[in-house]
Amino acid sequence: MRKILLGLLMTLTVSMAELQDIWATPDFMEKNMKIIDIRTPAEWKETGIVKGAYTIMFFDEQGRFDVQGFLDQLNKIIKKDEQFALICRTGSRTSEVSKFLSNELGYNVINLKGGIMKLRYEGYELVPYLK
Length: 131
Fold this sequence. Notes:
This protein has helices spanning 2-16, 26-29, 41-47, 67-77, 92-104, 115-121; strands spanning 19-23, 35-37, 54-55, 84-87, 109-113. By secondary structure, it is an alpha/beta fold. The longest helix has 15 residues, at 2-16. It starts with a helix and ends in a 10-residue tail after the last helix.
């Protein structure tokens, strides 16, 4: 009985998760929403970051990843049911990571399509990464 109840709860949690794909625009950056930048430290230093964004690397320079390490850091910043946005360089990495977080783990995530490159193209002023 416990296994059935646990299975139903997990299914309900995942079905309540919502994934949205939204273009990264300067207007969106003005919303009061947590933004997680999943690029690498070298990328953060090269271009800067969105003001107020949290920097948590998902893939390293060689394409390796540590899902549990990422989730440990993410869960210090957001609550599982809280909506937040992911950004990377062009939206390719966040497309995959946001699908995983939403479909497999039940997070309420927005994938920012076009990423930092689209924001820069539209004149959005990034702030220096200082760590």
